[in-house]
Each structure stands twice: as structure tokens, then as C-alpha cells.
Amino acid sequence: MGCGLSTPDNDGGGGARRKQGSVGDVVVFLPGLRAPMGVDLSQALAGRLDKGAVERLSALRARVVDMAMQESAVALKPRRKAAARQGSSTANLLQALEDYLPLLLGLVKEGGELRHSVQFVWTNQEDKAEETAMADAWYEVLSVLHLMAMVCLLQANSLLLPRAYGDGYGPRVSEESRRATVDVFLKASGYLDCAIRQVLPQIPSELRRQLPVDLAEGNLKALSLQALGQGVDMQLGLAIDSPKATLAVKRRLACEMVKYWHQVQESIPDLPVSDGWGKKHLLFVKWKYVEAKSAAYYFHGLILDEGNSEKSHGMAIAALEASEEFLKESKRASEVFHATPPTSRNGGSSSSWCLGDH
């Protein structure tokens, strides 16, 4: 498991990410990138598929392999310039995957021998010794969709890091960036939902048991819900900044966040915690869930306080006190998350709201 990272600590070392002491600024948490390894499609598909189609498929996959390995190398050997280049590099990788996927789907639709004629190999960037190889084109489709979602989450993390605009104000996350991340989060969730509903059922149960933890159904579902939850978080922040948004709208968005993060907790499977990454992911979920509950109680309390009765006023005080307690707990959870190895920094505002500000 891993973190979306940008503008990390000055770390010139290499090696697997699990050995890093710090991963820099983190706003969006996600598993490490799974990168495809090169395979000889021309030999595996010779005489079984049109030569032109094989050449096109080989070229597109080779492009994906090259770009995915480059992106993994940047994540594994981060520099201060990572955030600046990540936007264009992830966009290019996503486009390469989008070009490759339709041809790959054509391969699986052929069925029969073609589906099982290629041994597809993928490795997780955090431990290059951990390779998973399967002679099933649906495994390749599943891996591609997962990588597309992870690239989207990397884009979201980069967009949500504060930037200086040379206007005399301090670094900040622009409204344009926050609006853009809503679509990026929805896209990531959509890719994962497709993987769960359309692809996993195509893979035999005995092969599904051999899938790496990144591709386990519970993890795919949890990450899909996590993307939705963080997308709603951005919508709440935009609503807070909008004079037209009512308290009812803000409370509804906060309650949606609570629902999504609760579902994430229910969906996420037991993760390996021996190397710290699984533990860090679980801490991230706990932090965001408690933070969402604080927001929901806060806006609920403000609505209750608009009532004229003594009862509604008393209920408002209770709700606001609960919100403050959850806020304190979320701050503690945030500190524990960022201090847990590999350590990280809060890349931006951890919450789109604050008690007493609205």
C-alpha cells in the first residue's frame, strides 16, 4: 500500500518505497502503482490474430509499460520537482491506458484460446520482487482499470497541494483545482466500480484468490468509495465558499461524507501491517471518517440553532459540542497518520471547514 505523493522531502536515495522514511505531502491516500512488465505479444499471438492488430496491441502496451515504469521511478525517487511534472506525466500515462484498453477488450471478447494465450505480468512498485503473472486477459483488463484509477488519484493529490500564484497571497489550493478534483475523483471511482462489476466476475474464483491485495474486491470497493468521499469533501469546501449554498446543502454533503467513509471502513479487508503501509491506510480512513462526523454534527448544530425553541437550542449546543470533540479526535488521528512510518506531511488543508469560521 502507499500514498499519493508530491513535493516530497529532499530524498536522493532510491530503493523500494517501503524503505523510505518520508513520502512528502499527502492529501490523497492510495496503493502504490502496479506497473506492467514487458511481454512478447507477437510470439504469443502469432497466427492467432491479424498481424496488424498484434503490432498495434504490442506498440500500445509497450508504451504503457515504459510510461508506467517512468512514473513508478519518479514515485520511488521523489524530488522537489515531482509535483510540477506529475500533472503532465500522469495525464500522458492515463491517455496511453485509455488508448490501450479498447484493443485489450477486443482481445478478451475473442474468447477461447486468445484470452489465455498471453502470460501477463505486473509488479507492485513498493516491492519489485512481488510479481503476479496470469494467463488471462481479464487479469490484464483488471490491472489496467486499477492503474487508471490510481493515476487519477495521483492527479488529485497533485491538484490539492497549495501553490504560490505570485499575487501577494500565500500558497493555496485554487477553486479551479478543487473543482477539477471532483471530476477526477468521480473518474477514479468509475474505473474501480467497472472493475468490480464488469471484470472481477469474469475471472474464475480460483484465480481471484491469487490476486494481489491491491486487486482484492474489498480493496477495490473501499478505494472507489474513498474517491467518492473525497470528491464530496471538495464539494463541501466549494459550498462553504459559495454565498448561495444553504446550511441544509452543507449538512447534506457532510452527511454523504460520513456515509462514504463508514462504507469504506466496512469494505476494506484486513491489510498486511508488517511494513507500515497497510496500517497507514487504515489510519487514513479513521482520520477522514472522524473528520466527516465532525463536519456533519457542526452543520446540523447550526441548523438546529436557527430554531426558536429552547429544546432546539439545547440540541444545537449538544451537536456543536459533539462536533468539537470529533474535531479534536480527527486532529489526533491526523497526527498519528502523518507520524506513522513512512512519515508524511499534510499537503494542504486537511478539512474544508473549521469550527467558528462559517
Automatic annotation (TrEMBL):
InterPro entries according to UniProt: BRO1_dom, BRO1_sf, BROX
CDD domains: BRO1_Alix_like
Annotated BRO1 domain residues: 27-358
Region (Disordered): 1-20, 337-358
A Pfam family recorded for this sequence: BRO1
Domain of life where this protein originates: Eukaryota
SMART domains documented for this protein: BRO1
Comp. bias (Polar residues): 341-358
Family indicated by similarity: Belongs to the BROX family.
Name of protein: BRO1 domain-containing protein
